[in-house]
Amino acid sequence: MNKYKLTCIGLVLSIFIYVTSIVLELELFEKAIALLASIEQFEFDEMIIPILIFFVFLLIDTRQNAKKVKMENAKLNIYKAMLSSSHHILNNFIYQMDIFKITAEDTPGFDVKVLAFYEEIISNAAYQINSLSNLTTIDEFSIRTSVMTES
After folding, report:
1. Alpha-carbon distances of 58 from 10, 51, 55, 70, rounded to whole Å
2. Which pTM does this prediction carry?
3. If 146 and its partner were Cys, which of 8, 41, 115, 131 is the partner (CB 3.0–4.6 Å)?
4. DSSP conformation letters of 44-66
5. Cα-flanking dihedrals φ and ψ of residue 136, to 5°?
């Protein structure tokens, strides 16, 4: 119902005007014609059609912009949901990899350079997750550049 709110208001208003004009015996169309005839001397009637055309295009443009904003908001919500899910998955992966690190540290003779490399990889992944989470503008360029920078 909320989707057709203005249509319902227009319908109720139209019915109200129709019933009122019938009950009060108003001739609204004739009065509108008489009004146009009375303003003929001011040459306003030549501006009515261009003004109507302007407002039709204004209405179309406004609707397109509203649709575009709605689409962008939907994309933003989807991005945030995907980012949150990816963040959760990657954090679980990092915590599980900590088990690997603990096992590697307890294993005698395990290469210390590999553990340092592991720490660097985990740190870089955490940095990229955080940089994606803290984006202020959501577009392809900012997303790509946020994960390409090194910590």
Report:
1. 19, 10, 5, 18
2. 0.50
3. 131
4. -HHHHHHHHHHHHHHHHHHHHHH
5. -100, -35
